[in-house]
Design goal:
One of its GO terms (cellular component) is cytosol. It is found in: Cytoplasm, Cytosol. This protein is mainly α and about 220 residues long. Helix content is about 65%, strand content about 0%. It has 13 helices and no strands.
């Protein structure tokens, strides 16, 4: 039976062993990169979780490309080679730049991009934004301003409903509004709702967000 991309990535990540898998995760959260995955997005995750994370944010061929490049970066060359061969045997091939055969590779739509650019720009859209909201909860509450404008955006994006909008908006302080929004209203929407909040805050409170270290 042919393996799915999830099967291939999960198996390859397991083949890394504990030490190399830790290096793989560390490379994804490298603070030296301009855009990176927050530790909260990958902390405590197993091989299956990371495989899902890659696939959810990229096409399968891009997820394969990125995995191969990180593996080579951490000197897990044999594991990368095995993954590439097994992927090809199951009908998958990475896009150009992953080190695969030029005859079978899918063209890279942005060949100038580095592997780190490809990973972190997309992961930032959901996982990193949600992790930022979680990690900076205390500071966000303390520094909250212009919350009615933020609530307007969340309502328009259907992240919160009219009842939640009115209920939270009736709180006396901006801090109470932010606290209830994150702790109560955004529970149902999960990471996607927090990502919308991140974008709304970047729009309405950009200086505060930059002060808190937002990428």
């Amino acid at each position: 039976m042919a393996k799915t991309m999830f099967d291939l990535l999960e198996g390859a990540l397991e083949d890394l062993g504990a030490e190399k898998f830790k290096k793989f995760i560390s490379k994804m959260t490298d603070p030296g990169l301009e855009t990176r995955v927050a530790k909260g997005a990958v902390e405590g995750k197993d091989c299956g979780d990371i495989a899902n994370l890659l696939i959810e944010h990229f096409t399968e061929s891009r997820a394969l490309e990125i995995t191969l490049q990180i593996m080579r970066n951490i000197k897990a060359n044999q594991t990368a080679e095995n993954l590439e061969k097994e992927a090809a045997a199951n009908g998958f091939s990475p896009s150009a730049g992953a080190g695969g055969s030029a005859g079978t590779a899918t063209p890279n739509p942005n060949p100038a991009s580095t592997w780190s650019d490809l990973i972190f720009s997309s992961l930032l859209d959901v996982s990193d934004k949600a992790a930022f909201i979680d990690d900076k909860f205390v500071e966000l509450v303390e520094k909250a301003t212009s919350m009615n404008a933020v609530l307007d955006i969340l309502l328009s994006k259907k992240v919160i409903n009219d009842e939640q909008y009115n209920d939270i908006g009736s709180e006396r302080t901006e801090q109470q509004k932010m606290r209830r929004l994150i702790r109560e209203a955004l529970k149902a929407s999960g990471a996607s709702g927090k990502a919308v909040l991140y974008d709304a805050l970047m729009d309405k409170q950009p200086y505060m967000m930059k002060d808190l270290g937002a990428p």
